[in-house]
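ERR on first pass: missing label on line 2. Operator R.T. fixed the label and resubmitted. Corrected input:
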Amino acid sequence: MKSSILRAGVALACALGLAACGGGSGDLLLQGTIYSGVTKAGLILTNNGGDDLVIPAGATSFQFSRAVSTDDEFNIEVKQYPSNVKTCTIINGKARANYYTIAQVSMSCEIKTHPLVIKINGLSTNGLVVVNGTDRKEVQPNLPTLAMNPVYEDGAYGVTILTQPTGQTCTVSNGSATMGSTDENNNNVVVNCV
Amino acid sequence: MKFSFARGALALMATLTLASCGGGKATFPINVSVTGVSYDGLVLTTNGQDLPIHYTGDPKTPATINAVFPNGIEYGEIYTVVPKTTTASDGKTVTVSYPQHQTCSPATGYPIGLPITGTAGQLSKIQINYVCSINAYPLTGKVTGLRGTGLTLANGSGVATVSVSPALGTDNQPTGADITGLTLFSVTFATTYGVTVLTQPTGQTCTISGGANGTGAGTMDQAAETAGGVSNFVISCVNNPT
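pass 2 clean. output:
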């Protein structure tokens, strides 16, 4: 008789203990800092494969709506990337929850880049220097195209002439626009030299 | 006689023992680490000592330079390691011995953000960390004739574009008045710039003049640095033909 009471008591204690642990209704707010790269809507994070969290464009931090309990495992992963993001790196995104670990999560995303290859017409002499901001390229004559440094998707570019070639004058048309989402035929920049 | 010999030996021993104990006061070397050094010219100073940080390598590959002040300081001495300042003979002009074209400040953040001032012996090792960055100077100028909305300017890729709105009169209508004193972009020393119109304002076309080459492009060179930037930008906007 006595032992059966004990047994029931243990079972009850176990049940209570399990309820306290497993429910995911803890008091630790799982959050993180976003350092860079979230310039567009579309990013969705998950914790342990669920609890989807939609991150808006320009966000610098995130916080899951469901709190976690001490010693719960959390594992933050990316479910969906914004269309202009190559990859996101989550640091300290997987751990057992406590006051320390939930405050150590951070993320940075790398935005896609695309080649900026521009057309050159009629250049027959040396000396032409083309810039896209800090990107400076000396152009050899008689080449149909010039590869500038890659440009971030949705980022601006502004190609202009720094130095004219010897004996010729070049003009840039459609030199400034916003980079699209493709690697080829993604710009209409033409440098015409006469 | 025997006694006096023993006494003499004792006295000698005592002297030797004292010398070995007291003579060498603990000294602390002042270690310095400077990151991001692209040019020569930095001189750090503390406790009446100067420590030049020399760099003659390629400015495009900044270096981390570790050095130690020539003399250590004794336990309890206070140190404050700062770039050396020199006051000119007029008593006003103060020159700081930074690297050319650079500015340096104490490192911040874990684990390199250590205090630049302290007392020798407070920490087991004196370590001073500085970080240098290359100076940037502004492109400034004005916009004329702007009446439409939507003008944005770019300086290549990777820097935020600049939007310019027209000047409005008391009736909230665009006046087309000059917008002066515009700071367009900040350009790092020895890099190129090329300002272009990314989007034209509604109903207007704007063209850019100024910069070193007259058409909005140039290099932030020594002359531009001496002038404190490039201030001759004029963005002229005219109405499109109807």
